[in-house]
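sorry for the late reply, my laptop died twice this morning and i had to redo everyting from scratch. anyway the thing you sent over, i finally got around to it. pasting the sequence first so we're on the same page, its 358 residues, then the predicted structure underneath. double check i copied it right bc i was rushing
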Amino acid sequence: MHSTSSLDPVGLLREIRDKARELGFAGLGVTGVDLDSAEQGLLDWLAAGFHGGMDYMARHGLKRARPAELVPGTVSVITVRMDYWPEPDLSAALALQADGERAAISRYALGRDYHKVLRKRLQKLADHVATRTGEFGHRVFVDSAPVLEVELASRAGLGWRGKHTLLISREAGSFFFLGELFVDLALPHDEPVKPHCGRCTACIPACPTGAIVAPYRLDARRCISYLTIEHAGSIPEDLRPAIGNRVYGCDDCQLACPWNRFAQAATEPDFAVRNGLDQALLVELFAWSEAEFNERLAGSPIHRIGHERWLRNLAVGLGNAPATPAVLEALRRRADDPSALVREHVLWALARHASRGT
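ok and here's the structure:
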């Protein structure tokens, strides 16, 4: 543990909070490293196979629930929140999902890759702390390692775990990113907040594919975010119709949550919409070559799935779209795509339209 005997921990934490606000973080909380009570839930989730093809979750085992094993010497975890909602209300997102000719992309992915933004800001926060404490042990995490970020954030008082498994804040709903700074500093801990979901289960029936199998229990194998982002292979045919026009991620459970009427608009310019992705037509995106995909989506979180998965997802969206001449022609143009994965989904889409008499 880094010695802070010459420092006032309360005063140091106050400075850390001030610097975090200056760096654009909307909230900051601190908790310890004892997550013992979360271990059994993690083991049960893995044993049920709900992690799907995300084998890294099983490989890391209980390190996810043991910060001091993941980063030896860790004494405290600083958790931060940064809002990303790009609009003043939820109506535009809801209208987009109802427009079968347009691509519905999870709102967090419309701007710059949040991993890069938050990681740089957290490192700046750590650099600032070092000016007060001297060199200290720390590591930055932004959805990049086996960290139970929702558990840590809830223990740090930033919100509570909703029945959809995401963190919810009374002041900001759930449309925000989380990041962590593991430190070897003994800092005062924040108190957890009381859960406020009550009897509400709006998020559960809102899931198009039934991925929320019970309150607080998500089967990633059915989750549209997993299927369109993490999953590398063929999307199960029985789930494709329910995916609709969601071609990268899904916000349905969050859009149904009453607390998101308090969602805060992003103040970070990097999260502003790029490439018109909030209103893009499926046929337009499907026409992008790999070079166009790489050029337009450089710096976007979408870029990491690659052009092949992007086309796979769009083919499903086009299979669910109205059978306009433009939609059918776009599919036919890629019926002989070099990728077997893309061809499979294109042929499914064309067969789906044919079965409906189009």
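The beta strands are 27-31, 76-83, 104-105, 138-141, 160-161, 167-168, 176-183, 212-214, 217-218, 246-248.
thats about all i looked at so far, will dig more tmrw
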